[in-house]
Amino acid sequence: PRLSEILSLHDFEAVARQVMPEKAWAYYSSAADDEITQRENHAAFHRIWFRPRILRDVTKVDWSTTILGHKSSMPVYITATALGKLGHPDGELNLTRAATRHGIIQMIPTLASCSFDEIVDAAEPGQVLFFQLYVNKDRSITKRIVQHSEARGIKGLFITVDAPQLGRREKDMRQKFEADDPSEVSKAKQGNVDRTQGAARAISSFIDPSLNWADLEWFRSITKMPLILKGVQCWEDALEAYDRGLNGVVLSNHGGRQLDFARSGIEVLVEVAAKLKKKRGVTLPIDTFQVFVDGGVRRATDVIKAVALGATAVGIGRPFLYAYSSYGAEGIDKALQILHDEFEMNMRLLGSRTIREIVPDMVDTSNIHMH
Ligand code: FNR
């Protein structure tokens, strides 16, 4: 279909499945085991309903916000997804350029196909970038990567904590990861790889499963960047991060690619917001500890639900990959334009003129089970 026929973020997935090379589709679309968590990620949003307000003057609505102190044209950022060149020769640069054009933030993955510096160089001056970190068993490598990213102006370090071992993504494992693959991460980064079990496993063998809470003090000692844990999945760990002075958490199950039957981030947000209030006396959103959600976000209404429940912003992954793999850079422009259009209409219909006016009373979460 022509790009003009694309009406929603879901449409990109349907097109991508038809037009993407099999190996790329397998890597991007796959999730762990039976992919139940991946399916649940979007479905969980369907259990939350709106309580809109009427008769407010909604001529002007504004969905811009600030994320870790930086302006963003919407409460959405491009989350880190590895191997950007599997879907398109320009790889992650598609995302960088779109982020610049649309005033949103991109999180650069450790396992990008393009080199880190290539991506940073492609950003316009003033463009805000975050960095997603996989922690290497060799901490001198991690230290070098972290300090280099800070020197290059990265504004937030998102340490992935849900992947001490990569999940089994069987669609991907059925494909072999070839040595001369042009999309391979720069220098496969971290040593020898096993190419017999798909892309994900080939590139991830350097990740340190010994990572633990005590290591976080070391991170604080080597960088001044805000530190955010990506992949928190229950209120206990979110409060631990809060107590230890971290700057935020991403409630995420890695797009369903890690532990199957992990709950969706939006569901975890409900309990995290409640427990922060009850046990620590703080009401989200707060500047000093920002809570993010990712997984299954496909509509502005999904984003609005997360914001109502106290999230600062949400991450979107696969839809942008599908958009540029199918239509190149224009595809991501279209995806972001769709989101902007959806924000405008839905904020009017909800009776919220600004992000601050999207409040908890506007959502009914009684179908969400709280642990
Ligand atoms: C990811 N994700 C991810 N996360 C991370 O911390 N490091 C990584 O290298 C990757 N790589 C990656 C590759 C691909 C192809 C996907 C789809 C996802 C997880 C990602 O940051 C995010 O948690 C999910 O993608 C969010 O779910 P949706 O928006 O894809 O449904």
From TrEMBL:
One of its GO terms (biological process) is lactate metabolic process. It catalyses: (S)-lactate + 2 Fe(III)-[cytochrome c] = 2 Fe(II)-[cytochrome c] + pyruvate + 2 H(+). It is found in: Mitochondrion intermembrane space. GO terms for cellular component: mitochondrial intermembrane space. Its cofactor is heme b; FMN. Its EC number is 1.1.2.3. One of its GO terms (molecular function) is L-lactate dehydrogenase (cytochrome) activity. Keywords: Flavoprotein, FMN, Heme, Iron, Metal-binding, Mitochondrion, Oxidoreductase. Residues 1-368 form the FMN hydroxy acid dehydrogenase domain. It comes from the Eukaryota. Homotetramer. In the N-terminal section; belongs to the cytochrome b5 family. In the C-terminal section; belongs to the FMN-dependent alpha-hydroxy acid dehydrogenase family. This is L-lactate dehydrogenase (cytochrome). It comes from Scleroderma citrinum Foug A. The lineage of its organism: Eukaryota, Fungi, Dikarya, Basidiomycota, Agaricomycotina. The chain holds residues 111 to 481 of 510 of the full protein.
